[in-house]
Design goal:
A hairpin with a 2-residue loop joins strand 4 and strand 5. Helices cover about 15% and strands about 40% of the residues. The chain is mainly β and about 80 residues long. It has a five-stranded antiparallel sheet with strand order 3-2-1-5-4, covered by helices on one side.
Length: about 80
């Protein structure tokens, strides 16, 4: 069986001082990042799209995705930490 890098994606709701954000967590490297939404017009899944765009821009090769309870998962063949 082939091994992959699993990334957990979820939405962080707004606070009194911050807008809603997107969290990406690397299950392999046990680290996470929080990024701001970058909504595109007509985007039906802004959380997932924002995470996908960020990961691709930062060199991740995404090969699949899935849905969990209150989160999404992205599957990558790139084994790099989120924070370099």
């Amino acid at each position: 069986m082939e091994n992959f890098h699993i990334l957990k994606v979820s939405t962080l709701g707004p606070t009194n001082t911050l807008p809603a954000r997107v969290s990406i967590k690397s299950e392999r490297f046990r680290q996470s990042i929080v990024i701001h939404f970058d909504n595109e017009p007509g985007d039906a899944a802004p959380t997932m799209s924002t995470a996908e765009r960020w990961l691709i821009k930062n060199g991740f090769n995404l090969i699949g995705k899935g849905e969990g309870r209150e989160c999404y998962y992205l599957i990558s063949t790139t084994f790099e930490p989120l924070k370099k």
